[in-house]
Design goal:
The structure holds two protein chains of two kinds. Chain A is mostly beta strands. Chain A has four helices and eleven strands; from the N terminus they run H-E-E-E-E-E-H-E-E-E-E-H-E-E-H. Chain B is globular and about 110 Å long. Classes of the chains: A mainly beta, B alpha+beta.
């Protein structure tokens, strides 16, 4: 998934988007471009894939289509989801292929103003830095813009 | 179209399409008369029509196309300028071609479409003369042309003309030629009733669209399966009835959509007569190619995939299988060899045979070669049936050396053929009778999208194994497993009918922990690339037809899964890539061969300690005999009416050979039942010779280890022992075989140097 979109200036992509579908993950609010999101599902039964990268949580049956599920907590280097809480599945469609992201909870679709955008702080490190393009400064909350192409290339 | 040849039909469809394009091109050409590109394209179209019509002997069509081509080539070369008059003539030519095609379509011939006018008009236009009398005559006679040809503006003046009778033309533009076939063909068309024109009855569809449909139908079938499964538990009769209808419709739809991708095998066969002819001449052989079942259809992708292997087999047959005319005459066969291609549908598969009546393959020589190359041991070879020996020509190690070709007349690239066929889920086998010929049989699935698979459970998850790699299943209870699963240098093996089967635990490969703790062992015996191994799984669930789904890039990279599927209950299961599994789990071939040698030694040692396995059989009169399992090649049933006589011996035809029979009851002086309809037969083969030992009933297979032996001997016996709580006679196999075929050992004296006892000790 070496994506051509990755080479575009970040601000341009976001300026085009304008709307982000947001979700919660380990207490933080993240957003992905609405255009990429195909659907959101309640928790699904997962078929694990032995020997797959750790971030691959398994496979789900999306109306007969087999879709890989990426555990976003693992991908962003966050602790595993507490026992007893179900993940929410966000199905994104990238270049014709459906991939799903496991997150904690879904939130609103938010209109973002490119003027509020700021690059990730220098203190952010590790894998998370590669996957987060920056933050939108909303009222009382930071919205982290997820680079969905990189996030699914686990 | 019933009366029409396939070729003509294709020609018509193609030409109609081209002609439509031609109209557009010609008109556009007027706007930009210097466009080389367009002129070339028009030229090519007419050239194609000319060529094909000449080939199909449509002379008038050819004539029209020919003058048209002449004019176009001069236009293209710049020798002529394109004037509106010339464009009109060209359009007229197109129309004439069209009416000729319509006539061919309606009646199969050119009818009485007159082409001389158009030909003259074109010639005149080329000379730049004004249109001469024949042209004018044509114009006058033509009922539908409103303006003299020379002055027609290029904008297709004839389009509006009302020709209601035009029977079968796709775009009902009237031909300006005076005597179009309309009047004549109209009744014919009326007879045909609603018969559609060729071009209207076919439609070109993007293969991607068909693939998508196929995919959707796959989903539908899965959903259907789920619903049927669910409804099966319900008592609602209406629901049950509706689900049965759904079941039927879904099956029919699946079949229908699959058919859209089907093409007759003739598409790839049609190139073979040439191959055979050329190769025959090259090798100085005379070969006749016969084809049966040309119209057998299979999926387009599969058709492409079998093209090369099939060509390879045909080349092989001509090159190595069929002998030179001299050799054939010496062998008392007609000088001309016959190569037969057969295709047919058989239980959901397509069977394609390449059969020749050539020299055949000698299993003994194949066997010798395989031993020499270290592919099998002598002992393994001795236990193989001639058919199994032949299949060794597909082993990878077998094909590399040219020497094999000298030995067997076969072999170069056969492993590649096999790999190709297996990659599309097919199988290949070879049958041969020395002196009379060879048959290579391909079994190809009808489609790739849906494959039969075995579902197994491992560490709580389900996995699918394509049936094509599966040979058999072995289930061992805890007690048996403790003994039966042995170790050779730390590697687990299982003794499957005397042969060591390397075992691979799926849990180990996948890095999981088995949740089966009761000691049971379930082994799926798999074959990949000529190697056999046992995959240990927790449980076998079911066999079902699965729809193969691609998995994402991340999962493909793991290299263990060939895809995923959705099972009947909606859960996702990974499909194991058996070839990758084998490559990953089994060590290199040479190491394996070494292992095999060690194993053979171990097995030999075991046999010496009398731990051999025995086949128990009843021979009548309450007597039981034990026969060492090593000497048993196959168990068969033979119908009494198939037993024939040679002198005072009984024989039966078996796999193309004559098999001498020994009846054990008579041989040992027991009195069995009067003749039964079906004889239980134990076949013993060695070095290409076989005998059949008839017993009354096959009872069991036991370990001879616990046997208590006595030395009470009788004719034909080695002694007796207590096996399975009953006294059992130990058969002197050698004596029994000699009774059936006195010459059996004469060719193989070296293999049993120590006489009688050797037949028991032989491994």
């Amino acid at each position: 998934m070496s994506a051509p979109t990755d080479t575009r200036p970040k601000d341009e992509v976001l300026a085009l988007g304008g709307q982000l579908a947001t979700f919660w993950l380990d207490g933080d609010l993240y957003g992905v471009e609405v255009a990429h999101v195909q659907e959101v599902l309640r928790s699904q039964s997962l078929t694990r894939v032995p020997l797959a990268p750790a971030a691959v949580a398994g496979l789900i049956n999306l109306r007969g289509q087999v879709v890989t599920a990426i555990e976003l907590r693992e991908r962003l280097g966050r602790p595993p989801r507490p026992e007893g809480t179900d993940a929410v599945v966000i199905v994104v469609r990238l270049r014709g292929e459906a991939v799903s992201l496991l997150v904690d909870a879904i939130a609103d679709v938010v209109d973002v103003d490119p003027a509020d955008f700021e690059a990730p702080p220098d203190t952010l490190d590790g894998t998370a830095r590669d996957l987060i393009r920056g933050a939108f400064k909303l009222d009382g909350q930071l919205l982290l813009a997820l680079d969905v192409h990189k996030a699914v290339s686990a | 179209m019933d009366g029409l040849d396939d070729i003509v039909e294709e020609f018509l469809v193609e030409s109609h399409e081209n002609l439509d394009q031609l109209d557009t091109d010609l008109v556009a050409l007027e706007q930009e008369p210097n466009s080389r590109e367009r002129l070339s394209s028009i030229f090519r179209t007419i050239h194609t029509i000319k060529g094909t019509s000449g080939f199909l002997a449509f002379n008038r069509l050819e004539e029209v196309a020919h003058v048209g081509e002449n004019m176009l080539s001069r236009l293209r070369d710049g020798a002529l300028d394109l004037t509106p008059a010339r464009t009109s003539v060209l359009l007229r030519m197109v129309d004439t071609v069209r009416s000729l095609l319509a006539s061919i379509e309606a009646s199969g011939g050119e009818g009485n479409v007159d082409v001389s006018d158009v030909v003259a008009a074109i010639s005149a236009a080329m000379e730049d003369r004004p249109a001469e009398s024949p042209v004018e005559a044509a114009v006058v006679e033509a009922p539908v042309v409103q303006a003299p040809v020379a002055e027609v503006p290029a904008e297709e003046p004839v389009v509006e003309a009302p020709v209601a009778e035009t029977p079968a033309m796709p775009a009902p533009r009237p031909a300006p030629a005076a005597e179009t076939p309309e009047a004549e063909s109209a009744p014919a068309a009326a007879d045909a009733g609603a018969r559609r024109a060729v071009a209207d009855s076919t439609i070109r569809v993007d293969v991607d669209l068909l693939d998508e449909l196929m995919l959707l139908v796959g989903e539908l079938v899965l959903t259907r399966n789920q619903i049927v499964q669910y409804v099966g538990r319900s008592n609602d009769t209406d629901l049950v009835r509706a689900s049965q209808r759904l079941n039927l419709i879904a099956s029919e739809l699946q079949e229908g959509v699959m058919k859209t991708r089907m093409q007759p095998i003739d598409h790839i066969w049609s190139k073979l007569p040439r191959v055979v002819r050329d190769l025959g001449i090259q090798c100085g052989k005379s070969v006749r190619l016969e084809m049966e079942g040309k119209d057998t259809e299979l999926d387009k992708t599969l058709l492409e995939a079998v093209k090369d292997p099939l060509t390879h087999l045909v080349r092989n047959s001509v090159d190595h299988g069929i002998e030179t005319p001299d050799r054939r005459r010496e062998a008392g066969k007609p000088a001309e060899g016959v190569l037969t291609l057969r295709a047919k549908h058989e239980s959901g598969q397509v069977v394609v045979e390449v059969a020749d009546d050539g020299a055949g393959i000698d299993p003994a020589r194949i066997g010798a070669k395989a031993v020499e190359r270290g592919l099998v041991t002598d002992a393994q070879l001795a236990r193989m049936s001639p058919t199994d020996v032949l299949q060794m020509i597909f082993l990878p190690g077998f094909s590399t050396a040219a020497a094999v070709t000298n030995v067997s007349g076969r072999g170069v690239g056969m492993d590649v053929v096999k790999t190709n066929i297996e990659s599309i889920g097919g199988t290949i086998e070879v049958e041969s009778v020395a002196g009379t010929g060879t048959v290579c049989r391909l079994r190809i699935p009808l489609t790739l999208a849906i494959v039969p698979a075995l579902t197994v459970e491992c560490a709580g998850d389900r996995y699918a194994i394509p049936q094509i790699s599966l040979q058999e299943l072995v289930s061992l209870d805890a007690e048996k497993a403790a003994n039966a699963v042995e170790e050779v240098g730390g590697a687990p093996v299982y003794r499957l009918r005397g042969e060591l089967l390397p075992l691979v635990r799926l849990t180990d490969v996948l890095g999981l922990t088995s949740d089966r703790h009761d000691g049971h062992v379930v082994i799926a015996v798999l074959r990949s690339e000529g190697r056999r191994f046992g995959l240990v799984v927790d449980r076998v669930i079911n066999t079902e037809e699965i729809v193969v789904k691609a998995v994402g890039g991340q999962l493909k990279a793991i290299g263990l899964y060939s895809g995923a599927t959705v099972l009947g209950d909606g859960t996702v299961a990974l499909i194991l890539d058996v070839q990758a599994l084998a490559r990953r789990a089994l060590r290199t071939e040479s190491a394996e061969r070494q292992e095999a040698r060690v194993a053979a030694a171990v097995a030999a040692a075991d046999t010496e300690s009398q731990r051999e396995r025995m086949l128990l059989a009843a021979i009548g009169g309450g007597r039981r005999v034990a026969i060492p399992l090593d000497t048993v090649t196959r168990l068969e049933q033979v119908r009494l009416e198939n037993v024939e006589r040679v002198g005072n011996r009984e024989v039966v035809q078996y796999r193309g050979a004559i098999l001498p029979i020994v009846r054990l009851d008579r041989h040992l002086g027991a009195y069995g039942e009067a003749d039964r309809d079906v004889l239980e037969v134990i076949v013993y083969s060695d070095h290409g010779r076989s005998v059949a030992i008839v017993v009354e009933e096959i009872l069991d297979i036991v370990d001879g280890e616990a046997a208590i032996r006595s030395d009470i001997e009788d004719m034909g016996l080695l002694g007796s022992a207590v096996l399975g709580d009953k006294v059992t006679e130990l058969l002197d196999v050698r004596a029994a075989i000699l009774a059936a075929d006195p010459a059996f050992y004469s060719t193989t004296t070296t293999s049993t140097p120590h006489g009688v006892a050797a037949s028991l000790l032989e491994v």
